[in-house]
Amino acid sequence: MVRIRRGTVVGIVATVLPLVIATLVAAGLFPGGGERLVTLFLIYVVAVIGTSVYSGNSGIISFGNTGFMAIGAYAAGLLTISPIIQKTALPHLPVWLTGWGLPFIPALLVALVVVALVAIAIGIPVARLAGSSASICTLGFLVIVHVVLVASSDFTRGSQTFFGIPRAVNIWMALPFAIVAVAIARIYRDSSAGMKLRASREDEIASTAVGVNVRLHRFLAWVLGAVLSGAAGVLLGHFIGAFSPKDFYFNLTFLLLAMLILGGITTVSGAVIGTAVIMVIVELLRKLEGGVDLGFFSLPTVFGLTDIGIGLAILLVMYRLQDGLLGVREIDEQLPLLKRLAGGKAHSAAKPATTEAASIEGDVLRVENVGKRFSGLVALEDANFEVRPGLVTGLIGPNGAGKSTLINSISGVVPPSTGRVTVGGVDVASLPVHRVPIAGLARTFQNIRLFKNLTALENVTVAASAIARDGADPVDLAREALFEVGLGDVADQLAGTLSYGAQRRLEIARALALKPRYLLLDEPAAGMNPAETMELMAVLDRIRTKYRLGLLVVEHDLKLIMRLCDIVVVLNKGQQIAIGTPAEIQSNPAVIEAYIGRRRSVAKHEPSKTEAPLLNLDPHTSGKTA
Ligand code: ADP
Ligand code: MG
């Protein structure tokens, strides 16, 4: 079920209003040329949005959507073409395809089913890929579609013009499609599925760690975008009435990508703005291209002026505005008036947490003989300990001791080479990473991994919606988690713009929204100033008692560890060298040896430093690195 929020509706209205106005003006004042231009604009809007559903939300550029346009155009064209023209134009068509002469809408629906089936088949491999490998794969798809269309001359007339398609699309037909495309794309973008895909675009590892099934969401967006592109192809085919495979090839692909990138790839309103701007540039330059006579001065014909113009426009915009004209937020999230209409600030439903302590007695997190090798290097060997609900377990050791590797192994981000991690007897390592949170484990990262171009609230909502709660709105759960760490006031700010300490706490809120039984924190206080550290300590102490959370905390700040922890595990060079209460650890000879050994070697390099008293180390002298 999709919950449609007020902000989404305001955004859709704000984005389609200019389309409606352009249509009314063109149809009323400029019948003919102007009307045709706006019709083409509306069709391009559908096409650009088709690409943006996948590319904008996943961050993977797709060259393949033009292929879906081609499939849509040809499939629908075969069904709508008049039987008489068909006899002469396509004499070798198989009998089951001849003589349909369907009206536009039924043909469109059949074509969209064909497009969807192809998209599903291609989407299975494409969704497994990320970044440029996925892009190249979509490019390959575009080339294959082109070659197949050219080769299937019985169906398509090969590279010759496929003609006789009824011109069923005018401006009044194109407008509702553009409106529906905007609405679908925007509802998807704001839905929990769209938010999850956007999270994976910002940080794939962190998104899987909060329960996002990245492949699934890439696949869904790919198919949805393909269907929209297919519709754009059907519209274009029935607008121009005659086309050949080259009309759906590189030129169109680059034109559409230029529109998408110029406006801002991550937003629906950006897609519309980019389409409009490029169309204006193309129209102006096309007039100039043919040479202009100004009476006293005449410009010569300049070949390729349009393409050069588009290229320059992109260069200029990207140079000044990396994220396109509109940036990373929708227009209604930027204009104050629209923000107010959409409900504006987070109405702080500062509810006290209603959630029961989630932990069940006996569900201990067990780390059994866990080890990890990276090719030749043994980063970790035979870690053995338990983390109990309501207790804080500290994990200390010099740099490179294997602490992060251990956290990564437990949380499934880097599967262990040996050993087992279980929660209440369930083997966590056998789960796919995105299902580890369901087993009750959540984590933060040593180097902050937030979804920078999502708001603080969205960051946490992604996690909240990973855990199915009967009926509870993930956004409410997310708000609750933000209040828990004292970030209720910055819910609507982009995560990347928050202060360092706030970003660290936001990561904790995001993990908390998974309602974990165990929270693994990799150096949560690293880089914090003393005030921020104090605030963090208070938060950790509160949440562990409130939810009876089991905490596993990696920390360089030994004072903090000694104060916070019930149990301390010490790693050195991949070996677990000690486990015990803070007091026991402080007097453990092996631990002293490990730390003194390191101190000596530090002292050797920095003779000015005197040996500090052991395990009373101030964070600034504890030899920490970034
Ligand atoms: P810590 O967090 O205790 O500082 P790490 O767990 O990050 O230590 O690293 C332990 C050892 O494993 C180091 O020698 C590090 O270089 C190595 N290591 C960590 N991650 C990788 C990796 N992905 N590939 C190869 N070696 C790694
Ligand atoms: Mg580390």
From TrEMBL:
Q: Keywords, A to Z?
A: ATP-binding, Cell membrane, Membrane, Nucleotide-binding, Transmembrane, Transmembrane helix, Transport
Q: What sequence ranges are listed for the domain ABC transporter?
A: 365-598
PROSITE patterns the record matches: ABC_TRANSPORTER_2
Q: Which GO terms describe its cellular component?
A: plasma membrane
Membrane topology field = Multi-pass membrane protein
Q: Does the keyword Transmembrane apply?
A: yes
GO molecular function terms here? Answer: ATP binding; ATP hydrolysis activity; branched-chain amino acid transmembrane transporter activity
Q: Which Pfam families does this chain map to?
A: ABC_tran (PF00005), BCA_ABC_TP_C (PF12399), BPD_transp_2 (PF02653)
Among SUPFAM superfamilies, the record links this protein to:
P-loop containing nucleoside triphosphate hydrolases (SSF52540)
Q: Where is this region: Disordered?
A: 603-626
Transmembrane segments annotated in the record for this chain: 7-30, 36-54, 66-85, 105-127, 134-151, 171-188, 219-240, 252-282, 294-319
Where does the record place it? Cell membrane
Name the PANTHER family for this protein. CONSERVED COMPONENT OF ABC TRANSPORTER FOR NATURAL AMINO ACIDS, CONSERVED COMPONENT OF ABC TRANSPORTER FOR NATURAL AMINO ACIDS-RELATED
Instruction: Tell me the protein's name.
Output: ABC transporter related protein
Gene source species: Rhizobium freirei PRF 81
